[in-house]
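User: two proteins, same treatment. go.

Assistant:
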Amino acid sequence: MNCKLALLGAAMLLVAGNPARGQPLPNNFWPNSTFESGTNLDQTNGTPTGWVQNGSDPTICQVTTNNYVSPTHAIMVNDNDSLNYGEWDAYVSLAGIANPGDTINVRYSEMWSVQDGEMRVAVVFLDASNNAISAGQFVVSGDSPGWQGSIETSTFTLTNQTLVVPLGAVTVNVGIVSGGSEATTGLLVVDDLYLARAPVPQLLPGNFWPNPSFELGSNLDQTNGVPTGWNTYNSGSSIICQVTTNNYVSASHALALVDNDPLNYGSWYSDQVSLTGHASPGDTLSVQWFQLYSITNDNMRVTFSFYNAGGSDVSDVSFQVTGNSPGWEGAVAGSGFTKVNQLVTVPPNATKLLVQLVSGGGPDTTGIMLMDDLSVAPPQAPAVLPGNFWPNPGFESGANLNQTNGTPTGWVRNGDDPTICQVTTNNYTSPTHALALIDSETSNYGEWDADLALSTNNAVPGDLLDIQYSALYSVTNGPMRLSVLFFDVHSNVLSATDFNVTGQSSGWQGAIAGSTFTLETQQVLVPANSVRMRFALVSGGPELATGVLVIDDLSAAVHVVPPLPPTVLAGNFFPNPTFEQGVQLDNPTLGIPAGGWQRGGSSSLIDQITTNNWTSPTHSLELLDGDEANYGEWYMFLNLSGLVTDNDAVDIQWFQLYSVTNGSMRLSFAFLDSGNNTLFGIDFNTSPDGTNSGWNGSVATSSFETQFQRLAVPVGTTQLRVNFASGGSSSVTGVMLIDDLSVRLSKPYISAITGQSGNFNLTWNSMASKNYTVQFTGSLWPSPIWTALATNIPGTFPTTSYSDTASHGGRQGYYRILQQ
């Protein structure tokens, strides 16, 4: 009987939380929130786990047992030194916790008595180089509302704050600081510090599961509530199946099992949901839910049960848990949920799906388990190129794929150590597998290989192939690579193109799980006599290379040149002139146009992509600058090898609209040599403090104006640099858009014909690197007969002239200029 009472007390603690605590945030991710873990905590010079003492006098940073919200410690800065300050600091990685744009809720309890200035709790977001991007400075001065003259007699004030995770943030730092200025004295005491991503539903794309967040139902704010579409079974008198509001992923309810009865079990089970229109037998479903648990004596489980049209159970798939979940902090309140992703296959004859949350493997199981944000969806198709011919692009077909030694269909392991070649389920772009190289050996390498016979059904010699894949990596001591090789009928290598990576990918967060993939696009030419193509994923340029390279959604397709709009110059060689190719183009601040464009300037948030107006649908490059202290800049480099030669001229055309104050914005072009030295550069500035002729008060309602320029290519040119910048100075503000930016080798264009003393003088656009022929015909119908008047006329820039002194019969004639 005494044992039974003890178990009941534990269960009540799990659901309700310790009454002496403050008010934890649901899904808190801040560790050691109550400062009860650490060393020497009963002394003022103790150190809570995860915290460090900083500032000009670290002894100001103390631990107190004189008052607290949750027993028996709080953290404080106690500053009696008007010449120094103290600062407690702690850092937590945001990987897998929050992303740019997410809202972070911050909650803590505090008391203070501050003289001669301010003290503060600072929440700072840092980039991958530990540079501060943005900070919330929550300052206090004077006395807190509950201050009664001493720590012991005063009461805490609950404080809630909200911050948005900025672009580029990978770490959050909380600092408790005794100074605005070092002259500040007094004290600031903090306890029960919680940070949590604002609760919003996290569901699979294409989810068809009803009431996924358990927010619909009856009596949901009571433990005996019932969400719509769910039912309960308790094998005994204990009410094991409950609804909780003490923690959740998306506000403000979660499904719970609170099982303190070693003789019975409870089960939440859903109504049967029709699969019609969602999935058929043989299809694979993605399932996702969030869970937290603390379980003893066996396991609890989530079970997916398939039923046929007659209502009979035809298949069950269970996912069992035991022990404590990774985010468990001793009670439901304050613990963090863990996301679970799985695949289940619809069995033959199945027409309906039922989900169960069950507290027993065996009836002696006790403990607690919560579930929230349950979603079910057909798996997302791999993000492959249109016309992809490469098989198994998402690595979802194969043997033993849920193990690292699994083998995707079509792939084989090679290299000195084939165990380096792995399959991972820790991260992917299309559920739930990706190809990986995990290499910790400096004397061996691994290589994944896949071959495909070429034919008219996929690609033939002479085709240009687009290659696309998603990658994440962290590589040291040399590059890893994805290589494309072509072989002849004798298995001789005709060409090999290596796409090397080293260092860390832009989304790397310290581990495969939690990092984000980068979309990579490449091109290769199928050489003559090719009969076989190979992809090779290799962990060594040199075998010394170590680290991780993961790829997913690998596709190949014959390049199709899309028709260009008439607003792009004929003969254009500038890549992606319409800004319609790239990554996340509908996201203004995260999108990146293909072709080599990069963000620069002192504030990359100014560099945007817009769908609010364009010349050719549906994107334009934009500078949106409302910041007088910063400027934005898009820039790119174009390799001109094989496109132009010394003393050529290029025609450049673009379309722009703008409204600018405090100066001008600009589009700039510069020709560079092989050492990146500028040979010639020119800025095309907007009208200062003005608008373009088609401006009508807003971007959406305004019209573009055309710009056309001709530039000579200096001797020694190897690159063209393009800069699109919002400032001559940082004080410039306003908006500027460009679209349909095209560049071509200049074409001869007759710009003037003038008569003089019976002669005709012809002038045309030309370049110094070419010679020209002038031809004449008296008629264009029915077919013209052109006669050369002069050949090998040396060109000059920007124009060349010729005087026609010949006598031509008839009353009309036509000239044309040929560039030799």
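Protein 2:
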Amino acid sequence: MNKFQFKSWRFIICLISISSFSTFSNAKTVHLLIVDSYSKPLIKALIKIDQLKLSKTSDQFGIVKFDLDSGQYLLDIEAGKNEHFHHYIDIDDQSNYPPNSPLVISKIEEPEHKIIIHANPLEHTSLDMATPVAIISGEELVSKRASTLGEILQLEPGLSFSSFGPAVARPVIRGLSAGRVMVTNNQMRVQDASTTSSDHDVGIEPLLLQQIEVVKGPASLLYGSGAIGGVINTVDNKIHTVPIDSLTGGVEFRFGDSATNEKASVFTLNSGYDNWTWHIDGFANETGNIKIPVSAESIAQLNEDGEDTSEFNRESVLSNSYSDTSGGSFGSSYILEDGYAGLSVSFIKKQYGLPGHTEHSEEDELEEIEENVFIDMEQTTIHLQTQFDLSILGLESIFIGVSDTDYHHSEIENGAVGTQFENKANEFKSYIKHEPYLNWNGVAGIQYTSRDFSAIGEEAFIPKSTTNSKALFWLEEKHFDSIKWELGLRFEQQDITLDSGVKRSENGVNYSVGSVYTIKKHNKLALNFSHNVRFPSVEEYFSFGPHLASSTFEIGNPNLTKEYSNNLDFSYRFEEAFGKDKSFSGEINLFYNQFTDYIFAQSVAIDDECVLSIENSNGLEIEQPVEDELNLICYKQKDANYYGAEFKLTSSLAKFNKHQLDLEVFADYLVAKLDSGENLPRIPANKIGFNLIYNYGDFSTDLVWSKNKAQNNVGENELSTPAFDLVNLEFAYRLSNRSSDWYLFLKGKNLLNEEIRDHASFIKDLAPRTKRNWTLGFRYNF
């Protein structure tokens, strides 16, 4: 090498060194304070900046520091399942965040679409999902907490519930319910008996939940062929995923007025030592027979029966609408260097009345309780879960979940046990996430569920059976510049075996193709197509007999075949769509579901073709008095179409000093018809409404109005349901510091004292919702 070349190389190396030093010298030391939804420091939270391949853990004060150049960075913050969210920070030459004045990063300030969804193993926010997702957590969940899952979700666009009195409110997604809407707890199925009959409640205690995720539309790829309507994943902290060094917990008490006589209490405790953590909780919730603004029977029902309607507008008591619930759970986990392993045991005991059998005035409320029908339910669930990194053979991590459920309830009629339901079920689910390969990210997994179900007693209408389901699933995604593509596939087989030896075996393939197109930051278009196969259930196949608890005679159809659906979802999600003031965010969803051989339960007459065909094939006969006393329900199968739209817009109307005014507007629209043009039964009416939130320092007011239109597009043998206006109001005062959080609230519901009937309910003409009522309560967290 000549002298000139040597000097040239030395000069280049010198320039590179100066450049590198210059770049490094521009980096700023930024201190971040990570806090939770209650403004308490998150200790040992994991903060990742994927674009720089950096990850650090917050200290004992919730502080973490990074050396960052000017620019925008996406923080992935995880402190357990309930505090996992994304946050953008901007660093410029003027940024100055020393240890005594750190930049505060709080989940409470994050919009819904930045919170990580646990229902998807690829850890997306709702903004990045190909299918629409609604998330309720933090302050919003505290405000909306209620005694049933359906009541919490009722005001979300596209959601409603099917009630059987105030103690039962099963969620309905886009008009689909029961077996088509799967409820999970920390990704594992809730295996109760709520899908077998309209009077059976969901085995989840809402007062203990930390987050609720609603996947709208088909979610069968990850959860099973039944989840055509969607999945509701409930999240709690029974199994911790990160270390806990201190004692944390909380208590809540609620007291209702004379309209409900509600008395509720709940407590939670969490702590740990070294790598071990533990959790314990308990709850109790009691309500009396509710007061209603009108008579129990609707005007339409009274006219149908030729009854006197002169006393219709008189306030009364809904007979047999009381409930008494208690339970608790214990969980423990061991925190691994790169994951966790945990166990939890939960117990629920619930006794609740079933309205629609008798009615009386307020004065004789206590005289007929023993003559009514009620359910006495118990459920014990054991969960085992582990997740840890693999980092071998191109594999990134593995999740393993095992659950075992022992559920039983007795239906007590006139003081004697009429029918006993028992459901022993277990599930094994595991998936592996692989490292990026040719820029593809994804998971592959297996799922196995087993269910031994029986109804015992003179009125048992479902035969003893065992249902086994086995599945393989695969989900992949890849980014192409501003477009992300998703591909999914699931193979599943279901086997039903009756005690009599009758067996039904079916298999099917589900697949989906979806994409998310980024128009600009926080503005995205999503499109998803899926093909789904749903297998008939034991109840749909083989039910036959009276079910007095629900006042029905149920007739299954052994000739049912697999149900197919082609589903299309389109979404536009936006924030900052109208400028940099971040005053607007929202979502617009359009969907279309085309069903082939759609299975549905319809109220029929005794001479209906469905009834006659089942009688002939089984050699059975239904006598005329049955039709006079009970509602005949027969399972039919025809081609059908569901289509509709959902809209949600959130805007910050004003913000100055300590005052802040926010507005949320929502609406949904749904049409559900058979190919022949007939209306499907029990389809919820369309709604439109708003949520106005005012904050002044520690004080807040939340006003909700929802206009539910009349449902006149009724199915065969169905009565119309009148429109109603639901107005709720909440006053709250919150006092927080770094070690504790006090929350005092007063909630008013149905303030216009409207007659409210849920069209999706089998007894909507016999049991309206509660009259105007108030609840006072407080919550303390430490």
